[in-house]
Amino acid sequence: MGKGGGCVPSKKKNIVLDGASNRGTDTNAPVAIEDQVTSETPATENFTVANLKIFIVFYSMYGHVEKLAKRMKKGVDGVKGVEAELYRVPETLSAEVLEQMKAPPKDQEIPEIAAAELAKADGVLFGFPTRYGCMAAQMKTFFDSTGQLWKEQKLAGKPAGFFVSTGTQGGGQETTAWTAITQLAHHGMLFVPIGYTFGAGMFKMDSIRGGSPYGAGVYAGDGTREPTETELSLAEHQGKYMAAVVKRLAEA
């Protein structure tokens, strides 16, 4: 998992240190365990490098954002040394209300995330549907629960991006992501838009396509429209692009 501190992400190494030479240099360092290190064991050779972690954290009522998230994971996992983990934010509506809204059941294989867990990520991609041009209340409630992380600036320096779902072409493909940037700013996170790195796919005019330079997107219509292959491909591209950025920062 990624470091919990607020700096840019880095490779994680489990290094066996000589307790005598490192004692007292860092009050936050683990307690030395010199009796587990023998003179025959070269301390500098015993280490492993774990994969960098990108958390894909989303809220999805009818499954459109979830479909983007799953395809985005494919893009992240395709970059060597980086892997994605899917999480959903807690639901705020009651089961009775969700039933009346005809919302399908949640995928139980995707766990809910607690705010404190964000500190373990090397980068985060947040996905949510729009509500009048802003993020859905469920995602905003989750952000509102990150006060302790904000107080300690545990997320400062971590790259983050957005992907969204809207009902119509004028429903907020850009403003939903744009208005969410304030959440990142207060945490000191680094907003990573995709720009026009998707290439020709960003300029196609022969079909309706969600997404913008801010991030991937999908049009849900009345809830029955499914993401197109172009929209899913853009989500996969964003995952791959974010993984490359996180990896580059880790190697800097």
Describe this structure in words.
There is one protein chain. By secondary structure, this protein is α/β, with parallel strands linked by helices. The chain is built from eight helices and nine strands. Strands 3, 4, 5, 6, 7, 8 and 9 form a seven-stranded mixed β-sheet that branches. Strands 1-2 form a two-stranded antiparallel ribbon. α2 packs across α8. It starts with 11 loop residues before the first strand and ends with a helix.
Continuous helix count: 8
The outline comes out as: globular
Order of helices and strands: EHEEHEHEEHHEHHEEH
First-to-last CA distance: 19 Å
- Summed over residues and divided by their number, the pLDDT gives a mean of 85
How many beta strands in the DSSP annotation? 9
Any descriptors?
single chain, 252 residues, alpha/beta, seven-stranded mixed beta sheet, two-stranded antiparallel ribbon, 8 helices, 9 strands, 17% strand, globular, disordered N terminus
What does this entry show, briefly?
The chain is an alpha/beta fold and 252 residues long.
List the helices and strands and how they pair.
Elements: E1 12-13, H1 19-22, E2 49-50, E3 52-58, H2 64-77, E4 82-88, H3 95-100, E5 123-131, E6 134-135, H4 137-144, H5 147-152, E7 159-166, H6 175-178, H7 181-187, E8 190-191, E9 217-219, H8 229-251
Parallel strand pairs: 3-4, 3-5, 5-7, 7-8, 7-9
Antiparallel strand pairs: 1-2, 5-6
Helix pairs in contact: 2-8
